[in-house]
Amino acid sequence: MNSSSLKVLLHWPISILALVIFFSTTCVSATQPHLLRLGVLGRTFLREPATFSESVSEEFQTFYYNQTLDHFNYRPESYITFQQRYVVNFKYWGGANASAPIFAYLGAEADLDYDLSGLGFLTDNAHQFKALLVYIEHRYYGKSIPFGSREEAFKNASTLGYFNSAQAIADYAEVLIYIKKKLLAENSPVIVVGASYGGMLASWFRLKYPHVALGALASSAPILYFDDITPHNGYFSIVTKDFREASESCYKTISESWSEIDRVASEPNGLSILSKKFRICGQLNNSDELKEFLERTYSIAAQYDAPPSYPVTVVCGGIDGAPEGSDILSRIFAGVVAFRGNMSCYYTSNTTDYPIETIQGWGWQTCSEMVIPIGRAVNDTMFPPAPFNLTTFSRDCTSLYGVSPRPHWVTTYYGGHDIELILRRFASNIIFSNGLRDPYSIGGVLKNISNSILAILTVNGSHCLDLLPAASTDPEWLVMQRKAEVEIIEGWIAQYYVDLHAITK
To answer: For this structure, is 463 an active site residue?
Structure first.
């Protein structure tokens, strides 16, 4: 099957269920771009999390909540429950008697374990706030699987139909209310924190459940990349800008490489020549496989272009530093080696970059409600043209799942159009943080909407960088970004205590 439309989703938390055909790149053509997953951390070769040491793991206690399958209907099957995992760190908490705050991390499109070991913002600041730390896993990921098993949960559209963002944030509300009651902490203010897709959930949670969460920190949350609010080519325009700023010659080499790949591929034994030149594990089936692999490499480098290494600079260093006289494809391969490491061979499949449950889960989410229309026209980025076609995309999703996407549902349910006017009138206490080197920042909230709907930007920041653990190598602008976020949250909590005192004295 040709998946020309679904290719747009195979690189953002990717596709596709148990259909092995979509786990290879042989089925995808060059008419739609791959998108990177929205996760907080670049996995695999880019940023492996620290091992979950015993001393750290002892601080976290795992619990399971008997979660309702369907929060929005009263059919008998809606009352089915499943075990939803949440993890609590009591180490820093000042206690219910002091109405000490609760920081709740809202899990996204992956298991919770990775975030426990890879995030740092909550633990770095918990002592200052005397905060209880709660991490809640997203339904259908990790160990929070309905219907008893992943196989059964992903069986068909009927079992997957309970897998959406509205159900997820309702889950979070139930868990947080339960925790507060269990700990007799009804007066403890809750600050929800989320990264990327989880950042979208955090901002939407504050809008939908203001009685549960006092405020939200939404890191790298592209809530405006729906329903044509943001130009389709925005993501890859930022990738292109990042590379051009790093090196004009590197940018030109990449721009010129696509036609050269096609030229070599068209020659006798051309695919074998390309496979050998790029040390492909196995054999290329077509030139698109190689182009998708390179596209993904450049996108990962840009999205997670974090200090101190700055991966875009690493890639361009390899391309520009190739031996004098190297042909264009040799220079491109030198960039791959610089970034991914000098390996015996390289797999072109995107499944090597992401956990399988993310591939399965996000395939459904992006074929149902999370339709981000990212594409490219001719000569508007350094990449080959790859327009987003909703008709073709919808047809392919329907053929896979038997249901069609709802591309306008996110803006219908959560809003997005005229956001500056709308949120100014009723919303409060949301921080939208973005690093402008992150391609997804193009779909983020990049300016203050009111005195409490605030945008914090860093020109050199990357995807969710502010939520990673503080390090001695952090540049001053990153230190100041985190400091600003902490000060805003302090202000929210201080005002909450004033209000609480006023109504309880």
So the answer is: yes
